[in-house]
Amino acid sequence: MEKVCRDWAKQAFGEGLVKAEYWNDFETNAKAAAAEVFRVKNFAEGEAKLQELLKEYADRTGGGIMAVGGEENPALKGIYDRIAASGTAVYTDKFDIYEHRATADIGISTAEFCVAETGSLCVDNYSYEARVATMLPYVNIVFVNANYVVENVSVACKIIGRVFDKGYLGFVTGPSRTADIERVLSLGVHGPNKLLIIAVEDFGEGN
């Protein structure tokens, strides 16, 4: 899967810019933006939480699940394989994701780091399949390293400036929303109706 940066921790972070101590501010601001945030110790707990969420939205898994990030993280690949083995269609290949882009209502993806000031996720969506999995489904479930939090947008842009040459990066702050029509807030008009964040403390290799 194409990415703007293959290893954000080694190539972009450093100089104390990324600190776990900003987590509480991120969580507070993410929830204020209508995201749901779940902090877990490891991928085993993350998988258990994911299974809970999939049961909650079981009526939306009939069209299958689009899932990205498994190529870079073996733990995620194992989770995707086990979900598929249980009988739910999980599309990880970019051609399969393209074919089922209109029917899959759940997308599972990853983020590079969190921004405490705004409760945002920085997503490296250079690849087509990552953009589709995060923008088209009704529910977007995002795995992120709970220790990768920056203080504000200025720091986030400094980090991005170290590695960006070409591609597609974005900041995701809560589910899609608009108030264009009579100033009435609506969710899910231009993207996912639900943003569910699973923050893993021990993210392991391949992050």
UniProtKB/TrEMBL annotation:
It holds the Pfam family LUD_dom. Residues 25-200 form the LUD domain. SUPFAM superfamilies: NagB/RpiA/CoA transferase-like. It comes from the Bacteria. This is FeS-binding protein. The lineage of its organism: Bacteria, Bacillati, Bacillota, Negativicutes, Selenomonadales.
